[in-house]
Amino acid sequence: xxxxxxxxxxxxxxxxxxxxxxxxxxxxxxxxxxxxxxxxxxxxxxxxxxxxxxxxxxxxxxxxxxxxxxxxxxxxxxxxxxxxxxxxxxxxxxxxxxxxxxxxxxxxxxxxxxxxxxxxxxxxxxxxxxxxxxxxxxxxxxxxxxxxxxxxxxxxxxxxxxxxxxxxxxxxxxxxxxxxxxxxxxxxxxxxxxxxxxxxxxxxxxxxxxxxxxxxxxxxxxxxxxxxxxxxxxxxxxxxxxxxxxxxxxxxxxxxxxxxxxxxxxxxxxxxxxxxxxxxxxxxxxxxxxxxxxx
Length: 295
Known about the structure:
alpha/beta; Arc Repressor Mutant, subunit A; D-Maltodextrin-Binding Protein, domain 2; nine-stranded mixed sheet
């Protein structure tokens, strides 16, 4: 019970919100509050100072939070390693890919891979950039297909797959949709729709504001389909990366290039995996993925 209460406590502090912690932990807000109160009662100390709908940490709460983060991380590592040892004879390849990616080329690579290794099971997960980074860092994925936002690390195989070009998907009813291209300055009065989990919204917004330079407001969707519904309803624009010549998204949405300093914004996508986990199967999947974009 203590580990579960620690998880709830860490989620509340990390999100600075009981409601977001409840959503992240898949329980009700009242249950989270009750578990934190029970935790404080068991410890015999106050961890949070509650003020109306806000809270702050007591000195004891700050210490308990730091130690809980470390302990939960170590517990999770121990759990993963135990599962890995128990299932070491199972043939599974775990692949991660971005939430905003349509997955057509990934499907092609998966189909070709299955013909070469019919005995090996593929499991596929998606996430935002940081979520994918965490998956590979924590050994919860064998290979992730992700955009490059960091300098290459010596701990990983950094396998370039393709260069993507950034587009804005806009409602066909938007005046901007008639333009041959747009800039973030021209888009700043139109909300930017980002596909992100609740825990990664701040990180994604920071990237588009401070790295790419978008200065407007933001809306969020949980998946690509929901984001495109919002775009079709003319609620905002969706920044998306794709290869040149990719077909338009139906008749209600127009995809046009986003320019920066007169050039279309480019993003490099790579396959990443840990060097210590390198294998012929992982290399084969990366090669097939790269080939699917070249075809």
